């Protein structure tokens, strides 16, 4: 269905090609998963499938890309619209109309599909993706999962043979991600659509993949293979695979269910062991909310939240999209007005503190990291961060070197990949070393390597007496780094306790290792490895 | 009877019908300065809006237009008080300190005596403008401009898309600006500069437009436009000239700025040009339309109700019926029978327009 033949893509003005000598085929009806580090060229590869590269982006494409027998060098993306459906990273950015039904019909209108056929296909798609209840709703009023499903539906109504998705679940909470993946599963199984999808969150998708396309970036060659084979040696792997490798299971299980069936022996071996968790050295109180109420117009974002954050803690803030996580973080830096109650950060009232003093008390990496970046090159950005936060020259660059070693210092911050841009924003805020550090969804678009480096840095900061609060949907990251978990629902704090207590028993928030080894209280592969060490 | 002709079967009325009705009500308001009639027109539009608006975000715009109308009246009255002369009457209400002006501004007075006649005249004039604004607001609340653009003729499709994209981006820019200003605090900066405010917002907007363009390209936008460039340009030019002609004609007819034959001629020529251009343009467009809004009996009735209201006022004005314009500012406004009946006809859409589907009922069934 899709055939890449010695494809090399070079963007205008770039010294190195973004993709080098790529050859692979994806047969009809397969779900192919594209993996690789951030900025390794996954998006370029996906966009080459429908001709956006090079027709839309510019640059040169050497070699040949065939999709359903059509050569993309001869067809513009619009001429391939009936064969390839494309879903971008941010569904909101690609919406043309303002209600769900109109959005579903848009591609068909452009293609000139007959009205009665259109009507039928829209109804079918609404049912297929479970959108019938929201058919008349404005797109802006949808939840993240509903938006993503609408975007998929909009690409599907023109009945393309190929569906291309760029990180469809990275911004979604676990439940919404499940919905989207279930919908994709149906497309592949029932309708025989060929799906090509890039995703960092392997733990969510690897079990559904028929084929893995690894884009290592740089000069290394792109390679393909079966998921179970590739996972044996892959440098990045989800916890279920790492546990399988540790226990020496063969064939390597890719889903929690398979792993659970293989783990009977491991569970009895670990039966009496308990994970050793170093106690967090809890210090003075750095963040505090008492009966905090925040509302936007007639929407109440937070209703009566009280909490306390102490030095040495890493607190994970979890909950559905729109539960009030971002609002809580923003209230702690004084960006949103507080209706009643108080929010204090490191002993200061953030609403009444001058910005240059506030950054010495609390730092926030916002959801849109690009908002923090002004300079024309990465090096300039680092230099201006050093002077903003009055730290020795070079501090920010050193931090960036640790988080993302391969960022080009003379590049424009906007040209970085989403993950790299986040690393830069993180480095900018971290170089002020504020006592209370807040991170709003820091793992969106990060690969496993960057996540591991982020975990190391957060642990270091906590050990040095900082308090860290991160809002995230990434349960594996929470299991690795958090000492405490708070769950928000509909603006209220519904649980607040130690990580193991809160997430282990929850069906939505439990990490893979906890699901495989339940009822044993293990959360991460590291804890299991250590317990096995002690036992032998 | 066909389903679309039912008056009580829930469906959304054609946005064009709402806009025509609202414009007719505005025309009616433009014929009178009688406060009784103006308030009646406002009440009629307000009642129809509250009876037939949806719960979509844009449906709340009527209140915003009401506030804008109050502002217009306020500005008008304050300015009149400052610039008041005795030309309208002699009932002095109070005296403001007069500011002496240089010789070249002779004839203009700032401050001084303020007469009741001047204030009341300003109130009525401002009221007329405010009511016309509220009519536009009513159209906005009943049918979003986007839906109206959707039912544009095929030849105007590209222009419509450009408008829709602009309508989405304007509010987005405001949100972006707010977010970027908040983020500046996080860098410890107090002072705003072009680089730290406008640049991120503009870059963000540019990024989004590029993304949207990529998405539209991937979804087949512009796939069917295979007409030669010259023909496309010609069609667009004809459409624009035609619309200009229509605009000129309507303006002239309503304001008596031009002689009747000339105004009518401009209107006719405009309509002819526009229709011809659209007929030519339609041939090259092979896109189809999903669930186009039907134009059936309820639409005709709604437009007719508006037309009766506007017609009654325009005829009354043309025949010099008493009570449309007041004899003097301080008289008690009369209640002329024909215009009142005409305006009340404008209430009909509250009944003849089909009700909207209510989400609550849907859940029950």
UniProtKB/TrEMBL annotation, chain A:
<comment type="similarity">
    <text>Belongs to the ABC transporter superfamily.</text>
</comment>
<keyword id="KW-0813">Transport</keyword>
<dbReference type="Pfam" id="PF00005">
    <property type="entry name" value="ABC_tran"/>
</dbReference>
<dbReference type="GO" id="GO:0043190">
    <property type="term" value="C:ATP-binding cassette (ABC) transporter complex"/>
</dbReference>
<keyword id="KW-1003">Cell membrane</keyword>
<dbReference type="InterPro" id="IPR003439">
    <property type="entry name" value="ABC_transporter-like_ATP-bd"/>
</dbReference>
<dbReference type="InterPro" id="IPR003593">
    <property type="entry name" value="AAA+_ATPase"/>
</dbReference>
<comment type="function">
    <text>Probably part of an ABC transporter complex. Responsible for energy coupling to the transport system.</text>
</comment>
<feature type="domain" description="ABC transporter">
    <location>
        <begin position="287"/>
        <end position="515"/>
    </location>
</feature>
<keyword id="KW-0547">Nucleotide-binding</keyword>
<keyword id="KW-1278">Translocase</keyword>
<keyword id="KW-0677">Repeat</keyword>
<keyword id="KW-0067">ATP-binding</keyword>
<dbReference type="InterPro" id="IPR050095">
    <property type="entry name" value="ECF_ABC_transporter_ATP-bd"/>
</dbReference>
<dbReference type="GO" id="GO:0005524">
    <property type="term" value="F:ATP binding"/>
</dbReference>
<dbReference type="GO" id="GO:0016887">
    <property type="term" value="F:ATP hydrolysis activity"/>
</dbReference>
<dbReference type="InterPro" id="IPR015856">
    <property type="entry name" value="ABC_transpr_CbiO/EcfA_su"/>
</dbReference>
<dbReference type="GO" id="GO:0042626">
    <property type="term" value="F:ATPase-coupled transmembrane transporter activity"/>
</dbReference>
<protein>
    <submittedName>
        <fullName>Energy-coupling factor ABC transporter ATP-binding protein</fullName>
    </submittedName>
</protein>
<keyword id="KW-0472">Membrane</keyword>
<dbReference type="InterPro" id="IPR027417">
    <property type="entry name" value="P-loop_NTPase"/>
</dbReference>
<feature type="domain" description="ABC transporter">
    <location>
        <begin position="2"/>
        <end position="243"/>
    </location>
</feature>
TrEMBL record, chain B:
<feature type="transmembrane region" description="Helical">
    <location>
        <begin position="12"/>
        <end position="29"/>
    </location>
</feature>
<feature type="transmembrane region" description="Helical">
    <location>
        <begin position="300"/>
        <end position="325"/>
    </location>
</feature>
<protein>
    <submittedName>
        <fullName>Energy-coupling factor transporter transmembrane protein EcfT</fullName>
    </submittedName>
</protein>
<feature type="transmembrane region" description="Helical">
    <location>
        <begin position="155"/>
        <end position="175"/>
    </location>
</feature>
<keyword id="KW-0812">Transmembrane</keyword>
<dbReference type="Pfam" id="PF02361">
    <property type="entry name" value="CbiQ"/>
</dbReference>
<feature type="transmembrane region" description="Helical">
    <location>
        <begin position="260"/>
        <end position="280"/>
    </location>
</feature>
<dbReference type="GO" id="GO:0005886">
    <property type="term" value="C:plasma membrane"/>
</dbReference>
<keyword id="KW-0472">Membrane</keyword>
<feature type="transmembrane region" description="Helical">
    <location>
        <begin position="337"/>
        <end position="356"/>
    </location>
</feature>
<dbReference type="InterPro" id="IPR003339">
    <property type="entry name" value="ABC/ECF_trnsptr_transmembrane"/>
</dbReference>
<keyword id="KW-1133">Transmembrane helix</keyword>
<feature type="transmembrane region" description="Helical">
    <location>
        <begin position="35"/>
        <end position="52"/>
    </location>
</feature>
<feature type="transmembrane region" description="Helical">
    <location>
        <begin position="64"/>
        <end position="83"/>
    </location>
</feature>
<feature type="transmembrane region" description="Helical">
    <location>
        <begin position="234"/>
        <end position="254"/>
    </location>
</feature>
